[in-house]
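Progress note, sequence design subtask.
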């Protein structure tokens, strides 16, 4: 269990890396005090522009991908299935991103980091979710609508591909968590007040 605890701590710390905060500070901006106040790629895009936001996306995805991909090999845990081990690491990374140790337990909404984790655990389901995200974003230009669609598409794909029970349960909980972190966005969507993104962001 020491290895499991160590792996979870590493995954959480990796998820906690405040990518958007670092990108903002590099431009002299605290993203927690401008735009939506969210330390995520969408606020980085709107505030800093496409270039910095792209870096934020790549790093945030890596924060989920690398712990899930590497830690089961580096810190294997006896008596725990590979899928269950990956799921717990993914949860730790996503929680680190949403509740970053370095930002007073604030952060982003977990979509990029979750996408990275699922790219390691369920690549085909992740592809389906990514395509759903891209189509909805292209049609609506509303990131939250695309993210919520991707979460539901991921869950349906995980069920459809008959993945192991721990992953199905974890995905169901993840979708509920995503809707909870997007609860204000959902309210604005229902009121027709959610902002659309514009090409190029601030840059």
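Output:
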């Amino acid at each position: 269990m020491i290895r499991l605890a160590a792996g979870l701590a590493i995954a959480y710390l990796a998820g906690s890396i405040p990518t958007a905060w670092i990108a903002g500070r590099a431009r002299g901006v605290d993203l927690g005090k401008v735009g939506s106040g969210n330390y995520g790629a969408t606020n980085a895009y709107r505030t800093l522009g496409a270039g910095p936001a792209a870096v934020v996306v790549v790093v945030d995805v890596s924060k989920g991908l690398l712990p899930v991909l590497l830690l089961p090999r580096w810190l294997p845990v006896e008596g725990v299935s590979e899928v269950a081990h990956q799921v717990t690491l993914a949860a730790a990374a996503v929680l680190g991103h949403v509740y970053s140790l370095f930002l007073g337990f604030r952060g982003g909404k977990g979509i990029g980091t979750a996408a990275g984790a699922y790219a390691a655990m369920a690549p085909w389901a992740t592809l389906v979710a990514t395509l759903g995200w891209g189509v909805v974003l292209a049609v609506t230009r509303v990131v939250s609508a695309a993210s919520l669609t991707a979460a539901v598409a991921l869950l349906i794909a995980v069920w459809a591909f008959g993945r192991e029970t721990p992953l199905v349960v974890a995905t169901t909980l993840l979708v509920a968590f995503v809707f909870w972190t997007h609860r204000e966005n959902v309210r604005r969507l229902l009121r027709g007040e959610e902002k659309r993104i514009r090409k190029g962001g601030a840059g």
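The chain has one domain: 2-191. Work on this subtask will continue into the next period as scheduled.
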